[in-house]
Write a structure and sequence with these properties.
It is a single chain. The chain has 240 residues and is of the alpha/beta class. The protein folds into two domains: 115 residues, NIF3 (NGG1p interacting factor 3)-like (Udp-n-acetylmuramoylalanyl-d-glutamate--2,6- Diaminopimelate Ligase, Chain: A, domain 1), CATH 3.40.1390; 110 residues, 3-Layer(aba) Sandwich (Udp-n-acetylmuramoylalanyl-d-glutamate--2,6- Diaminopimelate Ligase, Chain: A, domain 1). Helices cover 32% and strands 22% of the residues. The longest helix is centred in the middle third of the chain and has 17 residues. The relative contact order is 0.16. The mean pLDDT is 97.
């Protein structure tokens, strides 16, 4: 299959034109005229994954390897070292980031992973009506994500509506109209502000909330004659 063919399929799933202005979703490495033998799906691409991928393949990641223009291609530094490995193995790279968040990933995470019914959608924010205590909500999230512990900010106990945004969604906190906001990459001062304003927070973790990218996209690609391999880059954080 040619890259152009699967690019069209991906564009129908989550149109690339709907990405945020600052984003860099689309074809990152390769040519639309190139052909590939198999597809790898991953949240990111790191050195281990670049070494693992078979030649003449396509990798589709959630996060773009390149966000801004590169001033140099230094094979000793990231991300140029990854680009060099991909080119040497004739591996193409497509990324689906904010366009995929809006159309697929946030909804998939809420329904398939957390198990909630969606009552409202507002761009990146997914709203769900619930009737639980904050402690019950925290324990539910921990169990669904298989986490031993999770960071949380307590502001009030009665939770009737939650808002969810995978990845890093704290820029949207001021827009949230709910009792609790579930997202990742929560900073100290943002947490303090939300607590004082009566908004509970649960830090899902960036990696932990988006590692389901591959599984969510594979559901769409299974209808085509494509060998799809779900894998993932490693979480750069370790817990000790």
């Amino acid at each position: 299959m040619r890259i152009a063919e699967i690019y069209k399929i991906l564009d129908e799933i989550a149109p690339f034109e709907n990405q945020e202005p600052w984003d860099n979703s689309g074809l990152i490495v390769g040519s639309l005229n190139s052909e590939f033998e198999r597809v790898y799906l991953s949240l990111d691409i790191d050195t281990d994954l670049a070494d693992f991928i078979s030649p003449n393949s396509l990798i589709i990641t959630h996060h773009p390897l390149v966000f801004k223009g590169l001033k140099s291609i230094n094979y000793d530094k990231y991300p140029s070292n990854i680009i060099a490995k991909l080119i040497a193995k004739n591996v193409s790279l497509i990324s689906m980031h904010t366009n995929y968040d809006k159309h697929v990933l946030n909804e998939y995470f809420v329904r398939e992973i957390l198990g909630f019914e969606i009552c409202k959608k507002d761009e990146f924010l997914i709203y769900c009506d619930v009737k639980v205590s904050f402690n019950e909500l925290v324990n539910l999230v921990k169990n669904r994500l298989n986490l031993a512990q999770i960071r949380a900010v307590f502001a009030k106990d009665d939770i009737k509506r939650i808002a969810v945004c995978t990845g890093s969604g704290m820029d949207l906190a001021s827009l949230v109209r709910a009792d609790a906001f579930l997202t990742g990459d929560i900073k100290y001062h943002d947490a303090l502000t939300c607590k004082e304003n009566g908004l509970n927070l649960i830090d899902l973790g960036h990696y932990e909330s988006e590692l389901y990218f591959g599984a969510s996209l594979a559901k769409y690609l299974q209808n085509f004659k494509i060998e799809v391999i779900i894998t993932n880059s490693k979480n750069p954080f370790t817990y000790r």
